[in-house]
Write a structure and sequence with these properties.
- This protein is an alpha+beta fold.
- Among the domains are: 104 residues, no CATH class; 232 residues, no CATH class; 103 residues, Jelly Rolls (Sandwich), CATH 2.60.120.
- It has a 4-stranded antiparallel beta sheet, with no helix packed on it.
- Helix 6 packs antiparallel against helix 17.
- It is globular.
- The two termini are 32 Å apart.
Length: 661
């Protein structure tokens, strides 16, 4: 949906694809490690290689390579008879070793009974609804993707591309984890979660190393493609930007330190305790070059962790331990206020100090004017919050469509708050994004699947790590954030369901069919209700006419200075004919350097029945037709045997975008 030149796309794509495909083909274990490592190190590879490739294509190559590697490996192993005993013949030693490295499971649930199945189906439904919303019904171009100007300055393909920025990372990550779990032997000695965690921590360590160099030496070190992060004086490592680093850094650091503390408490080995303390101090130092979200997530997470650790070590009685924790939780806001008050007097150029100053400025007006207080805290996010709430109010139950918020910022016809920033962003936090894009009914379906995953895997405590980060943005909009979020939610310590209550119900005869009915029925019902808004959009040149107050020109690129020409790509186009008699006869010249065996023009009546059909004549600079519209013709359709890219001047269309000769 986002056109990228092949010279920019293929070098990065093929490198990412190879990094995911070949390790997966070699062994399940190394495939997982390399994929997780690539997620946190390859995201801005196109920028670092000098070939910029932005948007939804960030890690498409890596995930497609990993998914295809899994499917290829498992298919070959089944065809070779992996379920049979492989004899280690000398002539087949390499093949035998490969089969031993990738053992099969004893039993596995049918694919439609997997908890992933419903979630993948829901994402498919959202993708289909997104396609219909931004591309219209393909009655003109058949099964092809039709291109129109969704807004006067934005094509439908670009509008779809904005939604793909969040739809593609989510879909590819979920499909990858689904493929990994389906190919995992059950029971298994090697843990899917542990191997992915090893790759994550390996990539995280590389990012810490790069952040250290950026903090000590120069922010410009490996910083291409981080948008405004460098200008704001923030380190990003190899992550997407400072927005990703500000929550991924404290979350992964918390996981790492928790693991070290757990090892220390089990083995009483002081090295783990010393390493945990040094890690805490090191991450806190790196936080000086991070955004405000880091300090909120890091301080609250650290405070909660310290409270739990100290009460576990010093208080034996469970009742006293719980009372002490509640009291300390109540004291935390007071300590936080005192800390912010003291930091507001510092003369340092740190985001933490800036956060403290803004908090102190906003606090006095909070009771009288909360909106003004929010503006003083963060003007940009206040505007995003207001626009998001307006969008929620307009489509409370069904939402505005997945990925629709960036498009709302570009909508020239939207009535409401206008943003003063140039950057196109998502809602200020994850929870508002879900309601804005999916509505309360979509939120219910989304939470249903997440709840099933958490119940099956018993990961309620682990998922708490996302509550705070989700308050500071839509953390699944980038591939690194989406991968970490779904890893925390979808994977347990052994990579599959081990919740006793869920496992007990899974073995009953009625539970799995009921879960399948809900997994398919809920998305279908949501799609049925949501699709009702498409009936008045129209087709062809009448697509969105009621909303835009004009007919569609079916152009891919709008007219721009200095030539003011529409640019058209594809094989089939349709235009509404002008109603003025003087404008219904004359000449149409398609300016192009492309060649097609046949280019024809069709005149249709109001029922889109063909009244007249003629061929374009080839000329030196394109194709030309001259003649007169037949009586009763309402639409003009142009067809090309081969894909064509041509231009028409803005003067070829009247004020309502109807074609004239």
């Amino acid at each position: 949906m986002e056109p990228v030149p092949g010279t920019h796309f293929f070098p990065s794509f093929l490198l990412q694809f190879s990094f995911g495909f070949f390790p997966q083909l070699y062994q399940r274990k190394w495939g997982r490690i390399f994929t997780a490592l690539g997620v946190f190190t390859f995201l801005r590879l196109p920028f670092l290689s000098g070939l910029p490739m932005v948007g939804s294509y960030q890690l498409v190559g890596l995930f497609l390579g990993s998914i295809l590697g899994i499917w290829t490996r498992e298919t070959i192993l089944v065809l070779l008879g992996r379920n049979e005993t492989a004899l280690p013949k000398q002539s087949e030693q390499i093949l035998t070793d490969w089969m031993i490295r990738n053992p099969t499971g004893k039993s596995i649930l049918p694919i439609w009974y997997s908890t992933y199945f419903g979630f993948v189906f829901f994402l498919f439904v959202l993708t289909l609804l997104c396609l219909l919303q931004y591309q219209g019904l393909g009655l003109v171009t058949g099964l092809g993707i039709q291109e129109y100007l969704y807004f006067p300055s934005l094509s439908s393909r670009e509008a779809m591309g904005l939604s793909c920025k969040i739809l593609i990372p989510i879909s590819l990550v979920v499909l990858y984890l689904f493929s990994e779990e389906r190919s995992m032997p059950t029971p298994s000695k090697d843990s899917l979660s542990e191997q992915l965690r090893f790759g994550i921590f390996l990539g995280f360590g590389i990012n810490l190393f790069v952040m250290t160099i950026q903090s000590i030496w120069s922010l410009e070190f490996f910083s291409e493609g981080t948008l405004e992060s460098v200008k704001a004086g923030r380190t990003t490592g190899l992550l997407q930007d400072s927005g990703s680093a500000s929550w991924i850094l404290p979350v992964l650091s918390s996981l790492w330190i928790t693991k070290l503390i757990t090892n220390w408490r089990k083995s009483k080995e002081r090295f783990s305790l010393i390493l945990a303390i040094l890690s805490f101090l090191f991450v806190t130092w790196l936080g000086l070059k991070q955004g405000k979200a880091f300090w909120v997530v890091w301080t609250i997470s650290s405070a909660i962790g310290i409270i739990h650790l100290t009460t576990d070590l010093w208080i034996i009685s469970i009742t006293k331990k719980r009372i002490t924790r509640v009291v300390l939780y109540l004291i935390l806001p007071i300590l936080g206020f005192c800390a912010l008050y003291g930091l507001s007097f510092l003369k340092k150029d740190w985001d933490l100090v800036e956060l403290s100053k803004r908090f102190m400025v906003a606090l006095p007006v909070w009771k009288q004017n909360p909106y003004l207080a929010l503006q003083r805290m963060d003007l940009m996010r206040t505007e995003l919050l207001t626009i998001c709430l307006e969008g929620i109010k307009n489509n409370l139950w069904l939402g505005n469509g997945i990925g629709s918020f960036p498009l709302a910022l570009l909508d020239p016809f939207r009535i409401g708050t206008k943003t003063s920033m140039e950057m196109i962003d998502f809602p200020p936090n994850f929870y508002l994004w879900v309601i804005h894009d999916l509505g309360f009914l979509g939120l219910f379906v989304f939470l249903f699947f997440i709840g099933i995953f958490l119940w099956e895997r018993g990961l309620w405590k682990q998922s708490l790590l996302l509550i705070l980060p989700f308050l500071f943005g839509v953390q699944i909009q980038n591939s690194d954030g989406a991968f970490l979020c779904f890893y925390l939610v979808l994977l347990g310590e052994k990579g599959s369901g081990y919740s006793p209550s869920f496992d007990k119900l899974r073995k009953t005869i009625w539970f799995s069919p009921l879960l399948l009915i809900l997994s398919v029925g809920l998305p279908l019902n949501y799609a049925l209700f949501y699709s009702q808004r498409y009936w008045d959009l129209g087709i062809g040149s009448e697509y969105r006419k009621i909303q835009l107050k004009e007919y569609q020109s079916a152009a891919t690129i709008p007219p721009r200075s200095p030539n003011f020409e529409y640019e058209f790509h594809g094989k089939v186009w349709e235009w509404k004919l002008s109603e003025f008699g003087s404008a219904r006869s004359g000449r149409i010249f398609l300016e192009t350097t492309d060649k097609s065996p046949v280019v024809e023009v069709l005149f249709l009546n109001s029922d889109r029945t063909t009244l007249k059909q003629e061929l374009f004549a080839e000329s030196k600079y394109g194709y030309v037709w001259s003649g007169e519209c037949p009586k009763g013709a309402s639409f003009l359709r142009l067809k090309s045997r081969s894909k064509l890219e041509f231009r028409l001047p803005r003067s070829q269309f009247d004020g309502s975008n109807r074609i004239q000769f």
